[in-house]
Model the fold of this input.
Amino acid sequence: MTFIITFIALIIERFFHWGHLRHWQWFGRYQYFLTTRLANWPGFLLLIVSVLPVLMVVGIIEFAICGWLYNIPKLIFGLIILLYCMGPNNLWVQIYSCIRALNKEEPHVAIEQVKTVFGITAVDQSQNFHQSFTRAIFIAANQRIFAVIFWFAVLGPIGAILYRVISLSTNSSVSSVTQAAVYMQKVLDWIPARAITFIFALGGHFTLVFARWKQHVKQGIDSNDAILGECGIAGLCVANGDQLPEDGAAEKEALALLDRVFVMALVILAAAVFVT
Done:
């Protein structure tokens, strides 16, 4: 069932633009309401208190519908939760929008879009901009899609919800909650970041990627973005010191690599389900 849900969810996320239907404002309002009334509590405790009820509701629903109608309601519920927890915005739609702006020779538009969507600090259409943009694609692919799938495969719908609400909490209005959520997201990203970058080696240039992967695989949680960015760039057959094309070709190739990686991830998941 996990494979079927993941397969359908990836197809929908890849080829259909429905990110505008994901509404997480309710969680921000709920967390703000709760944390302002418990403002003197430690950040980690506030985070737990705000996240736990959401997990409990999802767990209760999943338990209640288990076994109904050959588990069809459970499959539909899992699919809805997984799709809802991806994003929140569609990765491919946003990246192609930026690439189109580059191809139309509207660099200022593209730069502003990339800065807004991915938070990079490059200020002009230079090699630094394209390096930052391409690395940001791989980091976003993990945080928006792969990590959600990973924790869904491990913990079911509760895992997907857990990752997304922790990610959303990194933008909390309470600084102590934000700090706790940033730390927890790094913890939750540690294994998925190393798993997806290993698949980069299978879908890209194995020798270059694996060399970078070995350098970072045993490092701590603060190295997550580094391993994703460097292994992603290496997967495009770009060695240290090499330049990226500045016409959007590198970004398109990054998306092509991600397509191959997600197909391979599905194959690995199917094999794992078959073995177990």
